[in-house]
Amino acid sequence: MVALKIRRRATNLRFMRSKENMKNSTRDKLKGSFHEVKGTIKEEVGKVTSDPNLKAEGKAEKKAGKVQQRIGHAKEAVADLKGQLADLKKAG
User: Fold this and answer.
1) Which of 8, 26, 68, 85 has the most CB atoms at less than 10 Å from its CB?
2) Distance between CA 21 and CA 30 in Å, rounded?
3) Half-sphere exposure of residue 60, counting CA atoms within 13 Å on the CB side?
4) What pLDDT is stored for residue 24 in this prediction?
């Protein structure tokens, strides 16, 4: 039991370290995907249970996830343009 807890902590630490090295754009895209899936689940549960508040909350979270993904894509595009600009400065 103790070995399992230690293994879990080590896995969590590895994940946290890899998260630190992750680009902001990638982090935004992953968080956006997570929120989009979570919103879809809430929306479907709201439909099944006839709960309009949960359905609306799910739709809102799904939209917020899509927006966060687009922000990640925009950050990535800006970083690419910055790199291209730096290359042009070196060449010129």
Assistant:
1) 68
2) 14
3) 7
4) 87
